[in-house]
Design goal:
Elements (H helix, E strand, L loop, with lengths): L1 E6 L3 H10 L5 E7 L11 E3 L5 E3 L9 H13 L6 E5 L3 H4 L2 E4 L2 E4 L3 H6 L9 H8 L12 H9 L1 H16 L8 H4 L1 H10 L2 H7 L11 H8 L2 E6 L5 H13 L2 E4 L4 E6 L4 E5 L2 E5 L1 E4 L3 H5 L7 H8 L3 E12 L9 E3 L8 E5 L15 E10 L2 H5 L7 H16 L7 E12 L5 H14 L4 E3 L9 H16 L4
Parallel strand pairs: 1-2, 1-13, 2-9, 6-15, 13-19
Antiparallel strand pairs: 3-4, 5-8, 6-7, 10-11, 11-12, 14-17, 14-18, 15-16, 16-17
């Protein structure tokens, strides 16, 4: 008979609780969330006129085992009818842009894009790809993403394309981020096949296997590139929370700030502002630094390593314009750090998900992302960055990059403090060491969430599943 306390009610904690409910070994699950809502960074504004704006992830990729795993959960929650799919043939999937040297450039795609020189690159991508097969593999057990791509595909691709990609995905600096932890597919391709190209063609090492449910099969058949939900991504955590409530086995607590966790004879005593509760096991989906602040002194080595995992602050500015104002159609554009350190990119939300526009009258929704690893350098400490200043910087970027002179008809500025963990070089060793400490000291504690095994929604959900399966065995 087990009582499991799950710390943190973002998508990681919700997913762990969901999988715990699948096991007959667990009597009770206690989910503790410090804020007033579940779902963490999955957060949508639903306006009364029908418009939807995303403040966090705006689409989820269905690819791979982790993508199928998420879609299986969506199926189980009864959200299949709510799905808004975007296929690979859609203009938002085919057209992605870079803003370099004061101009928008479409990313090369298709055969013609690979065999000829396409600005902002100075030579055909085919030359870099062909030469990559001949590059020797490294003996190092990790290196930066920039170093890895420079070595295998050339400095120009690393400086422009990969720099921009890391800013778009991690809001981070590719010169510090770990290739092994951020892009394990690339790292494994080199390790197993000696080449990224050969790894992609022939496969590289064992892949996770997840049986596809109806929705995952549909995504494969219809060739989805990404998907969202009719009422926004926030519908997903809301559906999980409702499912947990209905199970009768989960106690869900909002505004429950964990002050301290202490070992006890049966597992843990969890101290909250309003009292103490007991648990046989804890699954922590808290940010690493938040967990470090509540651990007992006996966990000092673990506490220190948790504090070593950095995260960055991102300003998200949602904008709505009257009419059709985009000079190009596509998913959006990214900006390399050499062009504008403070501005990460602009997403053209109305292109992939026009269903989220208000139904009456034509509008264009955009999201401007700013800061990340460069936040303090560009905007100072988060406390000092006013909404007015961030909005001004965002609208100026839209004017410069897209030629939009009109003022937005609606806007919302959200500052996500410490929202994306940064997997610096050696991250895998830190995570192995932390889990080794937990195992060697027989601590009834599991680590899950975006600080350890991947920052995407799919990765975080799968991390929750993995934590539960390591604790209880197969649960699905």
């Amino acid at each position: 008979m087990r009582t499991v306390a799950v710390l943190g009610g973002g998508i990681g904690g919700l997913a762990a609780s969901y999988y715990l409910c699948k096991s007959p070994q667990v009597t009770k699950v206690i989910l503790l969330e410090a804020s007033s809502r579940f779902g963490g960074w999955l957060w949508s504004t639903r306006r009364s006129d029908g418009a939807v704006f995303e403040h966090g992830p705006r689409g989820i990729r269905p690819a791979g085992a982790v993508g199928s795993n998420t879609l299986n959960m969506v199926d189980d929650l009864g959200l299949g009818e709510e799905i808004l799919p975007v296929s690979y043939s859609h203009v938002a999937s085919r057209n992605r842009y870079l803003y370099v040297n004061g101009q928008l450039h479409k990313m090369p795609s298709g055969i013609s894009g690979i065999v000829r020189t396409v600005p902002p690159f100075s030579r055909p991508l085919l030359l870099s790809v062909a030469a990559e097969i001949l590059v020797n593999k490294t003996k190092n057990d990790d290196e930066s993403v920039h170093s890895f791509v420079s070595r295998r595909l050339g400095k120009e691709l690393a400086d422009i394309a990969v720099d921009s990609l890391c800013r778009g995905v991690f809001a981070g600096d590719c010169r510090k981020l770990s290739v092994r932890s951020c892009f394990p597919v690339l790292y494994n391709a080199e390790q197993h096949r000696g080449s990224i190209v050969l790894g992609m063609l022939l496969g590289s090492g064992e892949a996770q296997v997840i049986t596809r449910g109806p929705l995952a099969k549909r995504s494969k058949k219809e060739s989805w590139a990404q998907w969202s939900l009719k009422r926004g991504m926030q519908s997903f955590p809301e559906a999980i929370a409702e499912n947990l409530q209905q199970s009768g086995r989960v106690q869900l607590h909002k505004e429950a700030v964990v002050k301290q966790i202490d070992p006890s004879a049966s597992g843990w005593q969890v101290r909250l502002e309003g009292g103490v509760l007991s648990a046989d096991h804890i699954i922590s989906a808290l940010p690493a630094k938040a967990l470090s602040s509540v651990l007992p002194r006996s966990c000092q080595p673990l506490t220190q390593q948790l504090q070593d995992i950095s995260s960055v602050t991102v300003a998200v500015v949602n904008l709505e314009y009257d009419g059709s104002i985009l000079p190009v159609m596509g998913f959006g554009h990214l900006v390399p750090s050499s062009e504008d350190r403070g501005l990460l990119g602009v997403v053209y939300d109305s292109v992939p998900f026009p269903q989220h526009n208000r139904p009456d009258g034509q509008t264009t929704r955009l999201t401007v992302m700013m800061g990340g690893a460069w936040f303090q350098e560009e905007f100072g400490v988060p406390e000092a960055a006013t909404a007015e200043r961030l909005l001004s910087r965002a609208t100026e970027a839209v004017r410069c990059h897209l030629g939009v002179t009109a003022a937005p008809s609606w806007s919302r500025v959200i500052l996500h403090r410490d929202c994306i963990p940064q997997y610096y070089e050696g991250h895998f060793q830190r995570v192995e060491s932390m889990r080794g400490f937990i195992k060697n000291n027989n601590l009834a504690l599991s680590l899950t969430g975006s600080c350890y095994d991947g920052v995407s929604v799919n990765d975080v959900i799968f991390s929750g599943r993995t934590a539960v399966e390591e604790l209880l065995g197969t649960v699905v």
